[in-house]
Amino acid sequence: MNWLQGKTGWALLAAAALVFPLFAQNNYLISVATQAFIMAIAALGLNLITGYTGQFNLAHGAFMAVGAYTVGILTVDHQVPFWIAFLAAGVVTAVLGYFIGLLSLRLRGHYFSIFTLCVSYIMFLLIEKWESLTHGPVGIMGIPAPTGIGPLQFGTPLSQYYLVLAFLVLGLWIMARIVRSLLGRSFMAVRNSDDLAEALGIDLMRTKTLSFVLSVVYAGFAGALYAGQVRFLGPDLASEAVTFDLVMFVLVGGIGTLLGPLLGTFIVTWLTQSLQFLQDYRMVVFGPVLIALIIFLPDGIVGTWLKRRAQRADAAQAEKAATPGAAAQEARNNA
């Protein structure tokens, strides 16, 4: 029954996403939803390394910028077709993530987070100062939209919306397969205790590095989609503010859950758009709302709901076990 309910819930979410453009009032709302999907893909990657493996990576937004700039540089400066540049973005972020992971994952806890924050700032400086490669503060303009595939064309906001939605669904499916596999259980074992994971025969460095690489590949592909959707890149994409936004999405939705990063991204994006009329003062309202969510829902919206559901199930089971003759009655019913 839980399996069926889960499938029904995901189907309803997919249906809502499919029909959303029919109710959107203009292309601006469709473009905002498209960017929310892109950020959700990146948040899924951050949730893998942080929520499932327990390593708080503060360079995640910078890897998203690496993927975006890979597409921008290849398509604008070297006239590489978009989809080849898109695949190259995943390769570049994976290779870079592998070597940075080998260095950073030797550290634990706050030391790892501080190291990755420094890495993020170094990557930001490289993008801003390496003008011959990244165009520096001017940024990269004129990035082409994703090229068509057969009869499918992606030059309009609506077509890009469905393209990014398809990648989000694919990313969710792959992530679900990862976290529910033996590999995903290894990630969670590392999150719970390094010593216990080693006692179970798990290679800590290899497991952490693999999780790190997989997570930044999600960020790289999200950045590649961002480049094709926005079609302009600036160094601010590599700033720590992007990473903090992604962290906020994961924390609000529920860290260590599949639905959490999506729900957090959509809720925070909706709040941000709703408070735009406040302009520079919207953070005065937005900040306390987020603080309240973190205080009263420390496990996030999805995490709190799952915990309470488990508590109710345990209470019902305990009540059933305490009822005289309940076990015998249950045995007769099963027979």
From TrEMBL:
Membrane topology type: Multi-pass membrane protein
Cell location: Cell membrane
Chief location: membrane
Membrane-spanning segments: 34-51, 58-76, 82-103, 110-127, 161-179, 209-227, 247-271, 283-306
InterPro entries given in the database record: ABC_transp_permease, LivM-like
Keywords: Cell membrane, Membrane, Transmembrane, Transmembrane helix
UniProt protein name: Branched-chain amino acid ABC transporter permease
